[in-house]
Amino acid sequence: MIERYESKRMRLYTDIPADKADPLPALADQLFEALQTEFGELLPDWMGVDFQVTAYLIKDEQKFVRHNLIKDAIAGFRHGQHLGYQFWMYEQEFDYYRRHLLLHEFTHCFMLSAHESMGGRPPLWYLEGMAEIFGTHHLDEKGRLTFGIMPARPDEVVGLGRIEMVQHAIARGDFHSLSDVLALNGKDFTVSRSDPYAWSWALCHFLRTHPRYNERFRQLNAHLADGQFASRFKQLYAKDYDRLAWEWEWFAADLRHGSDVVRNQIDFDAPPAGKPFEVAAAASWRSSGVSLKEGQTVQIRATGRVTLNKTTKPWISEPQGITIEYEKGRPIGQLTAWILPDGGTRVAHPDRIETFAIGADGQFKAARAGLLFLGVNDHPNDRANNSGSYEVTLSPD
Ligand SMILES: [Zn+2]
């Protein structure tokens, strides 16, 4: 039997069991409020009626076909499909992912239909990425939703797997630079029903939460229908596009459950030249301000102690690191370095983000020309409990 369930913002037709179906329309009402906060309020009594989406959640497709509830225009869709103020989706194995897909499709209806297109839509990475942002949710015991989360654990988002998709793509050599994600097109989203969504979500999450880029990202919300999105994006990020591209590189390479965009932002400001400077354990890479030539030798001295964790007692580390845990094959707490390649130096992704160990005292030879960055090695999802910093003195030859 196909039953009808209804809330203010959603009318749902489905043949799944009532206990699974009944809570769903109320979730759409919460999402509607969040979408209005993000994209601006719709006019009350819009077009003479309240905004309400009709959703078809399908278990036995034949029942829906018999009742003429699947339009020809959307025949052959795979997971979910929206059209105007309606969407269709197939029943999912996992409760989390059923809600996720429902919220994803509802977001499309709100972003596209509620803002009639006059001059053209935003690019797909944004449309699908934002649908994924509002699909990725936490549901508490009282039935309240939080949207746009960074999943802390796989079991929090059963059936989603976006983080794993990015990790697997990178492992097989399919890294997506910033310009790669911005260029994702309709064909990409048809060829793979998973990876392009994962990259688009990751970029939207990064831009939406990074303190240096999030306000500009929010300004783009005003360009859902005027055809200006892409040119506005270019304009807004023109002045620091290179830095944005580098930070994306690190965010994507380090992506894992609980990734912390705020803590992992790169500090591009150079410390005063020729003086010792601090490298903090709670932060990510910081610029040393020192530009190196390929093969140049640098003497380095690092002192101090940092705290990395607290179990029964604090985990105290010195610049050589502590061999309790490892990140990128090196002890956490170790002073590590990265050379941001000079502009125009084109290197493949694994080389672009290659790092090397420094430790307490010693010297190294620059493997390539570029700006030297330093950091305290730690998991990218575990910096919040760090404190302290090393004091570093550099003497380039
Ligand atoms: Zn979609």
Short descriptors:
397 residues; six-stranded antiparallel beta sheet; alpha+beta
What report would you give on this structure?
The protein is an alpha+beta fold. Helices cover 31% and strands 26% of the residues. The chain is built from 13 helices and 18 strands. The strands form four sheets. Strands 8, 10, 11, 12, 16 and 18 form a six-stranded antiparallel beta sheet that branches. Strands 1-2-3-5-4 form a five-stranded mixed beta sheet, covered by helices on one side. Strands 9, 13, 14, 15 and 17 form a five-stranded antiparallel beta sheet that branches. Helix 2 packs across helix 4 and helix 4 crosses helix 5. The longest helix has 19 residues.
What's the short story on this structure?
The protein has 397 residues and is an alpha+beta fold. 31% of the residues lie in helices and 26% in strands. The relative contact order is 0.09.
Between the first and last Cα atoms, what is the distance in angstroms?
79 Å
Largest sheet: 6 strands, antiparallel
> How would you describe the oligomerization state of the chains in this entry?
single chain
Fraction of helical residues = 25-40%
Q: Give the C-alpha Rg.
A: 24 Å
Query: Strand tally, please?
Result: 18
Contiguous runs where pLDDT drops below 50 for at least 5 residues? none
**Unique bound compounds:** zinc ion
Q: Which structural class do you get from the secondary structure elements?
A: alpha+beta
Strand composition percent: 25-35%
| Principal-axis shape | elongated
Please give the count of helices. 13
Average predicted confidence as pLDDT: 93
